[in-house]
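cron nightly-structures :: item 1 of 1
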Amino acid sequence: MKDTQKNGRSKPAMSGGRRLAWGAGIGVLLFAIGYGLNAKGWLSFSLGSSDQATTQIGTAAYSREAMEADRKVQSKDKKAVAAGVPVGADGYFVPPPESSIPDTPYGEAIRRGQTIFMETSTTVSDHVGNTLACVNCHLDGGRREHSAPMWGAYVSYPAYRAKTKAISTLEDRIIGCFTFSMNAQASSSGIAPPAGSDVYRDLMTYMYWMSDGAPTGQKLPGAGFPKVKKTELGYDLVRGKEVYTNNCVLCHAVDGQGQKDAESDVVFPPLWGANSYNWGAGMARIDTAAGFIKANMPLGKPFSLSDQDAWDVAAYINSHERPKDARQKGTVEEARVEFHDGEESYYGKDVNGVIVGGGCGEVSP
């Protein structure tokens, strides 16, 4: 077969083997170029992450040291390529190490925020109505991927939230955590810290420091809690109790009240009852709890439970009574219709012959 040329001459067409070799060579060259750019953090690829609507930051690690070095280069040469996003070999954002906190007034604020984050119920006791701390849901001091890490949260606000039907700032979001997850209504003050409080200033300083290098306007892999697709079987309390008995009792006890050490500090948090999050908290939704559990529990064994087990045990945990929704002003049914209609939640529903959602007891010392 011949290719006709404009000058009337002809030459043999490239053979199939030569075309294959030529194409392979070009492919290798393009891959090498792309890999080099990705290693510098200049490109992002979707690699089938378990996260939905997130951007995977490649497979090649790009250390914080490399980021700092590239920043120094750019500070001297404005035409230099901007520093990339620090990413580990696992593809997740790498926050700064605690050792990098400076010995300055700024560093002091970071450490105050860190202490509040780790010991919320004791450091902000007049605004916390249970025994929980931020770290109970946001693991490893807010660093752990798939547990709504602070490096994913800080760069995501302001944002519109369906829960409030309004644009929420990061401070608004933290106020919500105090109101629902920390059950501020049962605290000595009865409310979350007021807007503008140094509590928020220090917490947001801690989050800002942890987010150094994270891009805005882009949901990073591991940000937030993962979504677990609901199974065909749905969820079941009998199966959930079995999963809880086999996987959760060791830390959280048969009665779900967790464990404390000799100084009464919480070692493993209570999962229901007066000392836990209230019915308005995001974790009280079965789907949210299922995502958290799937990715993080049992502690030290992430992604070890099946999707079915995660849904079932989340349902079992959230079928128990807990403090009332802080937004409830009238009846449970009125609050269910206004705030919980359409949710994966037992709020206002019959569980073993009892309508749950009315709240329970006082916080125990």
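cron nightly-structures :: done
The chain has 13 helices and eight strands.
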